[in-house]
Design a protein that fits this description.
Order of helices and strands: HHEEEHEEEEEHHEEEHEEHHHHHHHH
Keywords: Cell membrane, Membrane, Transmembrane, Transmembrane helix, Transport
CATH topology of one domain: MetI-like fold
Radius of gyration: 31 Å
Helix content: 55-70%
GO molecular function: phosphate transmembrane transporter activity
Number of strands: 13
InterPro entries: MetI-like, MetI-like_sf, Phosphate_PstA
Organism: Candidatus Scalindua japonica
Membrane topology: Multi-pass membrane protein
CATH architecture of one domain: Orthogonal Bundle
Largest sheet: 6 strands, antiparallel
Structural class: alpha+beta
């Protein structure tokens, strides 16, 4: 036995086995997330259950399982939809209460802008004189027209009126600033000029509101009658319908195309209905932007600290204190960084910036409140130990002979550091960045008090000068998962969204890391070749 351990083979098997278990756990976790999350986009068949009490229900079968503490008894979980009518999205039915089930070919899934899906049968379009029969094919032009109106409404609300509001706020602050100055002739002329511009904008605003009112009136003209499983009828404005389809008549190819469209919509659209429907594009954009700003802040901070510790100071009391501080920083709970970011970045620095440059807007804060800049800097502080340690390791790995050759050729210490040491240590620095990016993308606690919100009205990047608005609040995939999973009023309906958003977060981190790994490998190859 002793001979076996002395050979070292058991340790090799132990490390190999541990690595295999770790990989299997990661693969299993990703597989579970994909299995639970990606099914949300598949158009499931609609089932009609006939119950023993002569009632009928319509919906998608979400789950079937044995009833706890009973023998040979099962129950079926049905996604009923029609939340505004039934007050719930899901309902369990004992199989013993089900008389029969079928898949009606004319059953429709109606995706609505509010209240989730509706399941039923299209009876016709509503007119003053009654109901005119309408097929799904005849419905498509009406739906197309409705989508066109919706796009116009969104454009006016978000772009046109948004631009007017932005300019009016800018002029309001200018007027406030002029009112504080001494009232000279020049000041009075500027005030009159700005008031004239504000009046013109106000007229334009009223015009846009009138256009919006007409569009909403036009949008509510067409209504369809939907017959539910129990025979009752519901009037549904076409404007409320996003998509209508008949999954029981769709083939595999049609369902696959539908699946891809829905997945693209998920990653490219804005969220709806308290984040439980729609897409996650603002959260993806906010996460990537925050990680990039954090990388720009943490890299020089971490690299300069590591260079100082490794190249410009000896092993003395001061350097030991700095090293101990950096190492201890890695063990500080992330929420503590959030509290520090709130106090130092937001209240102290942000409040100071507001007093100096945005005094007209006070008491409404500009930088003195949570925003993507402060959240990124807080995460830069949180991840700086990772970059410092990785950079020190990278500098240590540079062959001593290269430095001596540089000194031998007459280069100074700084020239050797800039031309030889740092380029050779770049792969190590990028390794630290990769680890920092991965941690920053997954952190949520410090963001909750430094700038992340449930729903951000605008992205940090837009067409208004200065185009990048670092003071704005933002959405984050990690916080989106927390919000949908634990704050949603309808947790069962939001559960698949949690898994899908988790998968998107993993993919975002993977893409960011892949880019950094490709750059690192190219640099490593370049400097290895140079060394040869």
């Amino acid at each position: 036995m002793k001979k076996t351990f002395k050979t070292g083979n058991p340790y090799i098997w132990l490390t190999g086995g541990t690595l295999t278990i770790s990989l299997l756990m990661i693969i299993g976790l990703v597989a579970l997330i994909m299995f639970k999350g990606l099914g949300i986009f598949w158009p499931h068949n609609i089932t009609r259950l006939m119950l023993h009490d002569n009632s009928a229900v319509l919906g998608e079968v979400a789950k079937r399982e044995p009833i706890p503490n009973t023998n040979d008894s099962y129950r079926t979980k049905l996604k009923l939809g029609n939340r505004d009518i039934y007050g719930m999205d899901f309902k369990w039915f004992d199989d013993s209460t089900i008389l029969s089930h079928d898949y009606p070919p004319t059953a429709l899934t109606i995706e609505r802008r509010e209240w989730g899906n509706m399941y039923g049968f299209l009876k016709g379009i509503k007119h003053d004189n009654g109901i005119e029969p309408l097929s799904l094919t005849e419905m498509k032009p009406l739906l197309k027209e409705s989508k066109s109106i919706y796009k116009k409404i969104r454009r006016i609300e978000k772009i046109d009126i948004g631009k007017i509001n932005y300019k009016m706020e800018k002029y309001r602050l200018e007027l406030k600033g002029l009112a504080k100055q001494s009232q000279t002739v020049s000041t009075r002329k500027k005030t009159v000029s700005i008031n004239a511009k504000v009046e013109a904008l106000d007229k334009l605003y009223r015009k846009k509101v009138d256009t919006l009112t007409n569009l909403y009136t036009s949008a509510k003209e067409h209504k369809v009658i939907i017959e539910l499983a129990d025979g009752s009828e519901e009037i549904l404005p076409i404007f409320q319908i996003i998509r209508i389809y008949d999954p029981n008549q769709m083939g595999i190819y049609t369902k696959s195309c539908f699946y891809l469209i829905k997945f693209w919509e998920f990653v490219s659209a804005e969220p709806r209905e308290a984040n439980t429907e729609g897409g996650v594009f603002p959260a993806i954009f906010g996460t990537v932007t925050m990680v990039l700003i954090m990388s720009l802040a943490v890299t020089p901070l971490g690299v300069l600290t590591a260079v100082y510790l490794k190249e410009y100071t000896r092993d003395n009391v001061f350097s030991r204190i700095v090293r101990i501080s950096v190492n201890n920083l890695a063990g500080v709970p992330s929420i503590v960084f959030g509290v520090f970011g709130l106090g130092f970045f937001i209240y102290f620095i942000g409040g100071g910036i507001d007093k100096l440059f945005f005094s007209e807007a006070l008491p409404t804060p500009t930088f003195g409140t949570g925003g993507i800049l402060w959240a990124s800097l807080t995460l830069a502080l949180l991840t700086v130990p990772v970059v410092v340690v990785a950079t020190e390791e990278g500098i240590s790995s540079v062959p001593k002979s290269l430095k001596e050759a540089s000194y031998g050729l007459g280069a100074t210490k700084f020239e050797t550091l800039w031309k030889v040491t740092l380029p050779q240590a770049t792969p190590g620095i990028l390794t630290g960045m990769i680890l920092a990016m991965a941690r920053a993308a997954g952190e949520v606690a410090p963001l909750m008090i430094t700038g992340v919100v449930k729903l951000a009205p605008s992205l940090p990047l837009d067409s208004y000068s200065p185009f990048i608005h670092l003071e704005r609040k933002f959405m984050h995939l990690g916080f989106h998962i927390y919000d949908v999973g634990f704050q949603s009023p309808n947790v069962e309906a939001a559960l698949p969204m949690v898994y899908t958003t988790t998968l998107i977060l993993l993919m975002t981190v993977l893409v960011l890391n892949l880019v950094a790994i490709i750059v690192r490998n190219r640099l490593r190859k370049k400097y290895v070749t140079s060394a040869l």
